Amino acid sequence: GEDVEQSLFLSVREGDSSVINCTYTDSSSTYLYWYKQEPGAGLQLLTYIFSNMDMKQDQRLTVLLNKKDKHLSLRIADTQTGDSAIYFCAEKRNNNDMRFGAGTRLTVKP
Amino acid sequence: DTEVTQTPKHLVMGMTNKKSLKCEQHMGHRAMYWYKQKAKKPPELMFVYSYEKLSINESVPSRFSPECPNSSLLNLHLHALQPEDSALYLCASSQDRALGNTIYFGEGSWLTVV
User: Fold this and answer.
1) CA distance A80 to chain B (A)
2) pLDDT tens-digit map of B46-59
């Protein structure tokens, strides 16, 4: 089973903000990633955050890291229908093993 | 350019066939990976190559045989597969296996075993 946990589904209206949450358990994790997977496609790297950071912003994407609670979130501002996809949270551990969450399926309704 | 190219995009093979999946990157990356992804599941690591040498084999059955002919290419040879091996096979690469290096994925090869 995964040590990285995500809720499986999220549905928002176009133009709203989406917040996808993730929790991890390995305190030695130093890099945390968000990947996007559209139907029938591979994994597209969206963003990542190093564990000595609390926040990282990149255009419509904001990543928040609460290291004490081992909680990571991805906020997508002004969500568009093209943002509909599965979003995977992943942690990279000191042994270089990349561990993925189960993925959150984001549905954006017009 | 952060492109990892995989061929073929789709493959249907019988249980007695021998086929190969191919992966190529021209980013100068020295670590390459094979992941397997079943429907509605996250990717699972199969193999890691570092500087053209096999570093990790996650107890993958011998009917899957990886090969790294050079630093840009990674193959996955398939023989005597089972229907349960049907999945999306993702190739990935990173600069090397250092912790801070991001892993970039290809679009995947959809494999159906009949």
Assistant:
1) 22
2) 999 999 999 988 89
